[in-house]
């Protein structure tokens, strides 16, 4: 190993430097402030936990994405969080144990063993909200509406929202009665929308059977017309499927009314989080970005593993990705340069200004430095025995 190799960061891990770090922190604060104005209380979960807590209720979705280590105090296996949602569920069910509805928000780094996709690293800054204690459609609408509001705050000029419902796939796959291996193959093909593979797997299934309906759904996506197509394909499906389609229609109508600028669509192959989601799921997309910029859904089963079953819905987003995609206005006011001086009055003036302004106090080594290099657009100058702020020429 050469000396320079010692300072190389692992693939997918990066330093965040000025001024990008400032923009990321500014957006993180604005997102959390927005969530708290909606009544969500901030929590700060630990970076590491025992694996049992981090994986509870999520099936194998997080296992491959989680770095694992041994706790030197107990010998138990721990993990560095790859997603903060299970931590919020633990806090609600086990730590807070509040009655009624609980609203929590959070923001912090997570660590993934692999990048989620080609455009992201392995250390996203995840922010999100979770609403516990309500099974109502109003709770789902509140969470989706808050997610769209945070994307507005992030400055995304255009947003497309896809809606789906995991109960549709769950009901059809259960009715079809496939063995575990076939079911896993169908699930993988559905996620990738591979029509040829599904035709090969389900080609012998009658059109009105559960398998035939699954095969028909893979080609259905888009706006209101897609929902109508799905209703036609699923006209002979179970009451569970019909209720899910009805809920999608109601939620879409209300979102169209409240967010007319947001493009709405339906994707019946949206199965991310299938192992723990239990109802309505949603994902927001921005032009030019291949992956969802924010996503979430209902997950009513996780709390039971922590000893307190609670209905829940929520969303999460990557603050780092939003900064790159958004068009936030940055009205940054430059700092004030305080020169090298032994005048005791200057220290008092600087202290007073720092209550509302950024002041850079020059050190002896900076006596000849151009203040603009330090981000200053004004300077403290002594006029008639008084220190005053003047624009830099």
From TrEMBL:
One of its GO terms (molecular function) is glycosyltransferase activity. GO terms for biological process: L-histidine biosynthetic process. Residues 12-322 form the Class II Histidinyl-tRNA synthetase (HisRS)-like catalytic core domain. Pfam families: tRNA-synt_His. Gene3D superfamilies: Bira Bifunctional Protein, Domain 2 (3.30.930.10). The keyword Glycosyltransferase applies. Transmembrane segments: none annotated. L-histidine binds at residues 83-85, 126, 130, 272. InterPro entries: aa-tRNA-synth_II/BPL/LPL, HisRS-like_core, HisRS/HisZ, HisZ. One of its GO terms (cellular component) is cytoplasm. Its main location: cytoplasm. Keywords: Amino-acid biosynthesis, Cytoplasm, Glycosyltransferase, Histidine biosynthesis, Transferase. Heteromultimer composed of HisG and HisZ subunits. Belongs to the class-II aminoacyl-tRNA synthetase family. HisZ subfamily. This function is generally fulfilled by the C-terminal part of HisG, which is missing in some bacteria such as this one. Required for the first step of histidine biosynthesis. May allow the feedback regulation of ATP phosphoribosyltransferase activity by histidine. This is ATP phosphoribosyltransferase regulatory subunit. The lineage of its organism: Bacteria, Pseudomonadati, Pseudomonadota, Gammaproteobacteria, Pseudomonadales.
């Amino acid at each position: 190993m050469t000396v320079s190799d010692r300072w190389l960061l692992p693939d997918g891990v990066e330093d965040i430097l000025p001024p990008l770090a400032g923009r990321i922190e500014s957006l993180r604060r604005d997102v959390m402030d927005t969530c708290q104005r909606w009544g969500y209380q901030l929590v700060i979960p630990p970076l590491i936990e025992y694996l049992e807590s981090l994986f509870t209720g999520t099936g194998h979705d997080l296992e491959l994405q989680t770095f694992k280590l041994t706790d030197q105090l107990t010998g138990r296996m721990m993990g560095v969080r790859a997603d903060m949602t299970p931590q919020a569920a633990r806090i609600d069910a086990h730590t807070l144990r509040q009655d009624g509805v609980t609203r929590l928000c959070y923001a912090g780094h997570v660590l993934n063993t692999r990048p989620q996709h080609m455009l992201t690293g392995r250390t996203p800054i995840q922010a999100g909200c979770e609403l516990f204690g309500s099974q109502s459609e109003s709770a789902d609408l509140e969470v989706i509406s808050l997610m769209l509001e945070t994307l507005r705050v992030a400055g995304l000029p255009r947003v497309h929202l896809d809606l789906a419902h995991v109960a549709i796939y769950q009901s059809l796959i259960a009715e079809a009665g496939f063995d575990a291996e076939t079911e896993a193959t169908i699930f993988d093909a559905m996620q990738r929308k591979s029509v040829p593979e599904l035709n090969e797997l389900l080609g012998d299934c009658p059109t009105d059977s559960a398998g035939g309906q699954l095969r028909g759904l893979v080609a259905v996506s888009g706006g209101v017309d897609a929902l109508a197509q799905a209703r036609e394909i699923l006209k002979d499906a179970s009451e569970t499927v019909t209720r899910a389609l009805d809920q999608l229609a109601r939620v879409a109508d209300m979102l169209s009314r409240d967010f007319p600028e947001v493009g709405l669509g339906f994707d019946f192959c949206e199965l991310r989080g299938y192992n723990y989601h239990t109802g309505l799921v949603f994902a927001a997309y921005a032009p030019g970005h291949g992956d969802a910029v924010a996503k979430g859904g209902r997950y009513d089963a996780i709390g039971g593993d922590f000893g307190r079953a609670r209905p829940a819905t929520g969303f999460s987003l990557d603050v780092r990705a939003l900064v790159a995609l958004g068009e936030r206005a940055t009205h940054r006011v430059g700092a004030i340069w305080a020169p090298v001086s032994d005048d005791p009055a200057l220290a008092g003036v600087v202290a007073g200004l720092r209550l509302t302004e950024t002041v850079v106090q020059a050190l002896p080594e900076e006596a000849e430095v151009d203040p603009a290099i330090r981000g200053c657009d004004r300077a403290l100058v002594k006029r008639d025995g008084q220190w005053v702020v003047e624009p830099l020429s």
